[in-house]
Amino acid sequence: NAGVTQTPKFQVLKTGQSMTLQCAQDMNHNSMYWYRQDPGMGLRLIYYSASEGTTDKGEVPNGYNVSRLNKREFSLRLESAAPSQTSVYFCASMLTGHTPGNTIYFGEGSWLTVV
Amino acid sequence: GQQLNQSPQSMFIQEGEDVSMNCTSSSIFNTWLWYKQDPGEGPVLLIALYKAGELTSNGRLTAQFGITRKDSFLNISASIPSDVGIYFCAGRSNAGGTSYGKLTFGQGTILTVHP
Q1: Residues with Cβ < 8 Å from A42, sequence gap 6 or more?
Q2: Which residue from B minimizes the CA distance to A5?
Q3: Engineered SS bond to B17: which of A41, B8, B13, B61, CB 3.0-4.6 Å?
Q4: CA of B35: how far to CAs of A22, B80, B106, in Å?
Q5: B48 neighbors A101 (Cβ within 8 angstroms)
Q6: Are A45 and A60 in contact (CB under 8 A)?
Q7: What is the pLDDT of residues A63-113, one digit of tens each?
Q8: Are strands B31-37 and A42-49 parallel, antiparallel or unpaired?
Q9: pLDDT tens digits for B37-78?
Q10: Of the candidates A41, A58, A106, which has its C-beta nearest B43's C-beta?
Q11: Are strands B10-14 and B109-114 parallel, antiparallel or unpaired?
């Protein structure tokens, strides 16, 4: 039972470098999300994809881009990393629709440090 | 945007004590969720609430969906050392359109249990 898998687990970047966080889910969920977690801030939504082929900005999208490659995969890209993007990043997925009982499942997190 | 205030921010308790934490919102939610995050892991769902006034238990955990739909609480009875972690509330609004499925998270409650 893989659930939501994200890579890499840890990464250190220099300011200005680019990188892509990969995420895949095997639960046939239609919606996928990228959150960042900072101390005292909870989880804040960066971008989400309600279905394959669509992406929308969340609460804190600046400095990020996303790609919904197919139904399984949703990647997050930092084009020019900044120290303010040092954070823990979580990918998540959910089966959405008209059923209120569906819940969101998280990956294990990616620890990113920008120096 | 929607705001969730979660309190307390942290708790230090003795093993065996009961714990209570709550979340309040500036707007109405249709679903309240409670998650626990262990160190180095992603959040894991503990309890989901779908109806105003609903009281749901999961072992030693009990959560309630407030009548006003703007608040929720989580109680943990007879705490044990493995209860240590960060607890998050999350609310979801079925406002329709692109907002469906997006969660708003509280800032988290850090729980420490002393043996």
Answers
A1: B4, B6, B88, B105, B106, B107, B108
A2: B42
A3: B13
A4: 23, 17, 10
A5: yes
A6: yes
A7: 999 999 899 999 999 999 999 999 999 999 987 765 555 678 899 999 999
A8: unpaired
A9: 998 889 999 999 989 999 999 999 999 999 999 999 999 999
A10: A106
A11: parallel
